[in-house]
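Usage

Read records sequentially. Each one opens with the input sequence:
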Amino acid sequence: MAETPPLAATDASPATHEHSDRPADDAPGLGAEPLWRDALGDCLRDLRRGRGEKLSDTAGRAGISPQYLSEMERGVKDPSSEMIAAVAGALDLSLVDLTVAVAERLRTGEITASVSYGSRSAYALAA
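and closes with the structure output:
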């Protein structure tokens, strides 16, 4: 029995993404997209380093071990929302602020996250 390739175009026009007018063949493959935990870890590390903190400083305020925070930053752990919220709070961010920063990083692929510590808001600036 012949196998049909997945998501093959059924008409002569190029296939497009459901929410985009970009042709599907220009889309990155599923394997090319970073995992959420990897993007989260990169963002957490950049935010922590931007504050000039050691793993133990941030982890202590979050109530987790430095080893666990290190594993989060390296994308080894797939942390619960409670753990993510604890680390966000230790970085003076709300969970929403951190989620937006990570989503922006994923969306653009070239992002530098910085934080305004006094106002508890995150800014993601394209490079």
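Summary fields computed downstream for this record:
- The two ends are 50 Å apart (CA to CA).
- The beta strands are 111-116, 121-126.
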